[in-house]
Amino acid sequence: MKARTLLLSLAVFSLALNLHAQNQPAPKPADKKDAPKKDAPKPAIKLAPQAPDVAAPKMDGATGQPQVGFVNAHNNFVKTAKEGKAELVFLGDSITAGWGGQKAIWEKAFGPYKPANFGIGGDRTQHVLWRIENGELETIKAKAVVIMIGTNNSGSDSAEGIAKGVTKIVESVRSKQPQAKILLLAVFPRGEKASPNPGREKLKQVNATIAKLDDGKNVHYLDIGEKFLQPDGSLTKEIMPDFLHLSPKGYQIWADSISSKLAELNK
Fold first, then answer.
1. Using one digit for the tens of pLDDT, what is the confidence trace for 3-21?
2. 94 catalytically annotated
3. Which one of 52, 70, 170, 227 has the fewest CB atoms closer than 10 angstroms to its CB?
4. Taking 90 as the threshold, does the pLDDT of residue 70 lie above it?
5. Which of 142, 88, 96 is nearest to 123 (CA)?
6. How far apart are CA 139 and CA 165, in angstroms?
7. What is the pLDDT of residues 93-111, one digit of tens each?
8. Exposed (0-12), middle (13-18) or buried (19+): which is 186, by Cβ within 10 Å?
9. Which entry of 156, 242, 256, 259 is annotated as an active-site residue?
10. How many whole angstroms separate alpha carbon 52 and alpha carbon 160?
11. Of the listed 74, 127, 220, 245, which one is catalytic?
């Protein structure tokens, strides 16, 4: 009898609990603001401006540190320099780096001079200057150094500032490689049309200034820009597909245009 009473009591208690639960309001959906937040993208770091004539590494706007690709390429160039084999060095930005995709033209034109290509895409004058001052011209004894740099500065720096940057580079190369002859190339033309073309006009001013660095002995200035142009001063995609970087035909023009001067400087 006591067992039946206990079972009946438990049944009544369980029923009461179920009824209570059914009468409770449904839980509200979690407020979005209470949900765990995903990691928001970090805002870009505002980088300090770099003067075109002061050595500086290329910086990463996301980390505030030197760009990894820039540093890796630089370190590889330092290794090449330490091998001490190069006798002809090309210094520059992506236009110079593009020789890496034109090996047949490169080897035919420059192979006999034991060349090394020290071009990095996106480089400005201050970046090339930093590379020179941080090991890229150590150990080797170059007979000639080809310099073509400045186009990436054209959007942010004055013609005077860019020319100062190029001048610093020439001075630094002379200091590091006093025995080498420098072939200083005018900054190549950019942009499809000759006019209106503020960028090209600025580079003409730069070229007019750096041309004065030619001393006829250690520094030799050469402007081959017109060889890329049409009679009306325009650029074609056949020579510069994006009106800045060279096609294979453009690199052949470059090689042909400096071959005799390089032969003279490498005697």
1. 444 433 444 344 443 434 4
2. yes
3. 227
4. yes
5. 96
6. 24
7. 999 999 999 999 999 999 9
8. buried
9. 242
10. 10
11. 245
| CA atoms of 114 and 230, how far apart (whole Å) | 33
Report which DSSP code applies to 33: G
Please report the pLDDT score of residue 207 as a whole number. 98
114 backbone φψ class: left, alpha, beta (φ>0; ψ -120 to 50)? left
Say what the pLDDT of residue 13 is: 41
What's the confidence (pLDDT) of residue 10?
A: 40
| pLDDT of 32 above 80 | no
Domain 68-265 has CATH 3.40.309.10: no
Q: What is the largest CA-CA distance in the chain?
A: 124
Q: Which of 94, 158, 247, 257 is catalytic?
A: 94
Kindly report the average pLDDT of the chain as a whole number.
89
Residue 183 pLDDT > 90, yes or no? yes
Q: Which amino acid is at 21?
A: A
Task: Report d(CA 195, CA 20) in Å as an integer.
Answer: 85
Secondary structure (3-state) at 1: coil
> Which is nearest to 240 in space by CA: 231, 224, 229, 232?
229
Entry pTM: 0.84
Q: Over 90: is that where the pLDDT of 64 sits? A: yes
Q: Are 170 and 184 in contact (CB under 8 A)?
A: yes
Cα-Cα-Cα-Cα dihedral sign, residues 59, 65, 67, 71: positive
Rounded to 10 degrees, the C-alpha dihedral 250/251/256/257 comes to 70
